[in-house]
UniProtKB/TrEMBL annotation:
Pfam families: S-methyl_trans. GO terms for molecular function: metal ion binding; S-adenosylmethionine-homocysteine S-methyltransferase activity. GO terms for biological process: methionine biosynthetic process; methylation; S-methylmethionine cycle. PROSITE patterns: HCY. It comes from Setaria viridis. The lineage of its organism: Eukaryota, Viridiplantae, Streptophyta, Embryophyta, Tracheophyta. InterPro entries: HCY_dom, HCY_dom_sf, Hcy_S-methyltransferase. This is Hcy-binding domain-containing protein. Keywords: Metal-binding, Methyltransferase, Transferase, Zinc. Residues 1-230 form the Hcy-binding domain.
Length: 230
């Protein structure tokens, strides 16, 4: 599975912006078009759109669609040139969706603290239109990333909000349309224990793990080769 922002930085993109990887969709779409083939050629069979964080409603909807379409174009070009033909594994496009905290831009995507005024109904309303736009663009999957609390892991046991990770995973396990469940933006030393906790309740779906970025040193905790050999 691809992680778009990491490779965008390798291509020289400046992601020090509230919009993060979505900034490239508006200002440098050519970089996004370069990133997807990199992952496909490296063996990834899922590529994600650069739509984790977005814009105002009017411009955001167009860019949400663009993110999916750019990934679809990259898949089409890769498949047409793939010499393996029918023996090649399928390539899927996942539309990336960030949390309500990512929209707020106040760090609450990492704490899970949205305040008492944010209800389940409010979160449903927030996500509904974005999901409709993304679904209409035709991705194979929708990837909900960095969802920090059970309503919408800090110590190796709980989600950032304090909700037990097993309870959060059980919510995903109970949903027939959820294809996989996982952990991201978490210290590597906690990952093994979190996977074991998730495995206790998630028995029918794959478990996904993303790399972690050190916001203080502004670098990945380990280099790409270390992930390959893990």
């Amino acid at each position: 599975m691809s992680w778009t922002a990491a490779e965008l930085e390798e291509h020289g993109a400046d992601l020090q912006d509230a919009l993060w990887s979505a900034k490239c969709l508006a200002n440098a779409p050519h970089l996004t078009r370069k990133v997807h083939p990199d992952y496909l050629e490296a063996g990834a069979n899922i590529i994600t759109s650069a739509s984790y964080q977005g814009f105002s409603r009017d411009e955001g909807e167009a860019l949400l669609r663009r993110g999916v379409h750019v990934a679809q174009e990259a898949r089409r070009a890769f498949v047409e040139g793939d010499t393996r033909g029918r023996s090649a594994p399928p390539v899927l496009v996942a539309a990336s969706v960030g949390s309500y905290g990512a929209y707020l831009g106040d760090g609450s995507e990492y704490s899970g603290d949205y305040g008492k005024s944010v209800t389940k109904e409010a979160l449903n309303s927030f996500h509904r239109r974005r999901l409709q736009v993304l679904a209409d663009a035709g991705p194979d999957l929708i990837a909900f990333e960095t969802i920090p609390n059970k309503l919408e892991a800090q110590d190796g046991v709980n989600a950032a909000s304090g909700d037990p990770i097993a309870e959060c995973a059980a919510v995903a396990e109970s949903c027939e349309r959820v294809a996989a469940v996982g952990v991201n933006c978490t210290a590597p030393r906690l990952i093994h224990g979190l996977i074991l906790s998730i495995k206790k309740v998630v028995t029918s779906k794959p478990i996904v793990v993303y790399p972690s970025y050190n916001a203080e040193t502004k670098e990945w905790v380990v280099r790409p080769l270390a992930f390959v050999t893990y």
